[in-house]
Design a protein that fits this description.
Layout: H1 6-13, H2 21-33, E1 39-41, E2 50-56, E3 61-67, H3 77-88, H4 95-111
Antiparallel strand pairs: 1-2, 2-3
Amino acid sequence: MLTPNLPEAGDLLGRAVADTPEAMREAARTLQALGAAHVLVKGGHGTGDTLVDVLCDGGRCIELPAQRIRTKNTHGTGCTLSSAIAALLPQRPTVEAAVREARDYVVAAIRRSDELSVGGGHGPLHHFHNLWPGANARRACLPEATE
């Protein structure tokens, strides 16, 4: 599985890759021809309020749109996504299912990242968003307080 963002896909192919789904599909298919079984070209570096990732498995390509989240806390999104995909691949029935669930995790981690106040510049995602209490925290993994 190869998971380049738009600039990385361009570097691998020796040319710029536009953020249109058509250009992303073409880039993914070209990268597959170099040997990758699955390619997820990530559109987070693109423009507009909606970003689109394109997942190709050799036979088909699917577009995975998401609403862009305006935050400065995006440090590590690509590494987090590829790690989540790698962790989920052996646990899910298809590559697509693993990618969709990993993307959901990353989107939630970005959405909750403004709850953190660490470092300067581009901050990290909130990797523990579903474990730490907060204004919108899900407490599924925390025991209920008892008296």
